[in-house]
TrEMBL record:
Region ranges (Disordered): 434-455
Keyword Nucleus carried by entry: no
A Gene Ontology term for the protein's cellular component: nucleoplasm
Record keywords: Guanine-nucleotide releasing factor
Keyword Mitochondrion listed: no
This protein's name: DENN/MADD domain containing 2Da
Highest classification ranks of the organism: Eukaryota, Metazoa, Chordata, Craniata, Vertebrata
Gene Ontology terms for molecular function: guanyl-nucleotide exchange factor activity
Domain spans labelled UDENN: 55-439
UniProt organism field: Seriola lalandi dorsalis
Length: 455
């Protein structure tokens, strides 16, 4: 699958297998306790606050414009309908619904009736003014009927990040849509009423289908809930291991990165996979897994971003990004980089990541490999958060923190990494924790052989 990555200049600013995995899990859990809204807490929030699987389902259809010269996306079905909203709530919902139509059909108005169309599933992110994010899951397909007709899109909006789970829900929606639009409602209603499952658990939905009888649909969340939105296989099918490391290096220093591919599903899966490599940190800047054509000017932004752009817009991306160097995967082009990507990450840790990447259980292996990278580079952070008095806010001793690292290459990387917004916000949350909840340096040292990596 052809993919392309555009990098701009940098934005200023030994245990046994069981023990190793256990250490990573403990360290992962410890770090995630400092992250607001991490997936490990989603079950508690959903269960205690009555959170639904999804906010609503909409069907977006392509309708002829008044002059008949083109098509425009319009919402033709919405479940549930929202009644009793005050004015500002209605205005906000209208903005959200308008954004949904753009992301479901990012190509704009250039459509023609089709007789064949392979359905595709992809996801996007809606970012609110306060920085909170909601996930949009979309499946585009050719509606039932005869003759040429434009495709339509089914879109589910949810605060939950679980691509695999919603893909299965779309399978059920599509199966019912082929029989009758009216059959979608009872299934989605039962889904909204169902309890949100904990990681590793299953919820069963009973649904009646004429001629088939009552069916039981089982929806299971993965045990590693923070990986349930990620498909690393797609990332590694598009890029070699070395190229993934180059992209990771650019992302960890919060540079501008554009992904280009033909398929919407490829774009959304790859960009979410790259963001997941940063765990337990979170990408804090512009994140648009699929950029609608009308918003293509976003590539001119001087701030960090992760963007997904369809290949047909490649010329517009390069025309508007004169200073952007290009790393491409197309066979007819060479690979271009800024020039420092290979030297950003400590060489020894790059080698260690390459050695553990295998095709078996790829999601688990990849996530552990990159989490271990952060453990070895900044895992000693807790020893350098000092509190002046009980109940007071902590202060992170930045200079002492990176000077404690013996490896020159690791120290050089960490000095650059601690200037990023993702690390800064992480430490701010740590500083606000009560001292009693702060893990000790001894605890960190028990998790890995050497949290301060040495050559």
């Amino acid at each position: 699958m052809s993919s392309l990555f555009c990098f701009s200049g940098a934005i200023p600013s030994s245990e046994d297998e069981g023990g190793r995995q256990g250490a990573l899990k403990r360290f992962s859990a410890m770090w995630s306790s400092f992250r607001k809204g991490k997936r490990d807490s989603e079950y508690y929030v959903a269960e205690k606050c009555g959170q639904y699987f999804f906010e609503y389902l909409v069907v977006v259809s392509l309708k002829k414009t008044r002059d008949g010269s083109s098509y425009e996306p319009q919402i033709t079905y919405q479940f549930p309908k929202r009644d009793g909203m005050v004015r500002y709530q209605k205005e906000e919902e209208e903005k959200t619904l308008k954004a949904i139509t753009l992301f479901c059909f990012p190509e704009g108005i250039n459509w023609a009736p089709l007789t064949e169309y392979h359905s595709e599933t992809f996801s996007f992110v809606l970012t609110e003014v306060d920085g909170s994010r909601r996930n949009g899951y979309c499946r585009r397909l050719l509606p039932g009927g005869k003759g040429a007709r434009p495709p339509e899109a089914y879109c589910i909006i949810s605060s939950l990040a679980c691509f695999g789970l919603f893909s299965k829900i779309f399978d059920e929606v599509e199966k019912r849509r082929q029989k009758s639009m009216a059959m979608i409602y009872p299934f989605m209603q039962k889904l909204r009423e169902a309890p949100f499952p904990a990681p590793g658990n299953t919820v069963e939905i009973k649904s009646f289908i004429p001629e088939s009888g009552t069916e039981i649909i089982s929806l299971t969340r993965p045990l590693d809930s923070w990986l349930e939105h990620v498909n690393f296989a797609k990332l590694f099918s598009c890029l070699t291991d070395d190229e993934v490391l180059l992209v990771f290096a650019a992302a960890v220093l919060e540079r501008r990165i554009v992904f280009i591919a033909d398929e919407l599903g490829t774009l959304s899966q790859v960009i979410h996979a790259v963001a997941a490599l940063l765990y337990p940190f979170t990408w804090q800047h512009t994140f648009i897994s699929i950029v609608p054509e009308i918003l293509i000017d976003v590539v001119m932004a001087p701030t960090p971003y992760l963007l997904g752009v369809q290949k047909r817009l490649l010329d517009e991306v390069t025309d508007q990004s004169d200073e952007t160097n290009i790393l491409s995967k197309f066979k007819f082009q060479n690979i271009f980089q800024i020039g420092d990507e290979e030297s950003i990450l400590p060489p020894k840790l790059q080698t260690e990541i390459r050695e553990v990447l295998t095709v078996e259980e790829l999601n688990r292996v990849v996530s552990e490999a990159f989490l271990q990278f952060f453990v070895k580079t900044v895992g000693h952070y807790s020893s350098y958060v000092k509190y002046s008095h009980a109940g007071g806010q902590g202060v992170f001793e930045k200079k002492r923190f990176y000077k404690a690292i013996d490896s020159k290459t690791t120290r050089h990387f960490v000095k650059r990494f601690i200037q990023t917004q993702m690390f800064d916000l992480f430490i701010q949350e740590v500083e606000q924790q009560q001292p009693g909840r702060q893990p000790s340096g001894e605890d960190c040292e028990q998790l890995v052989n050497s949290p301060v990596n040495k050559k």
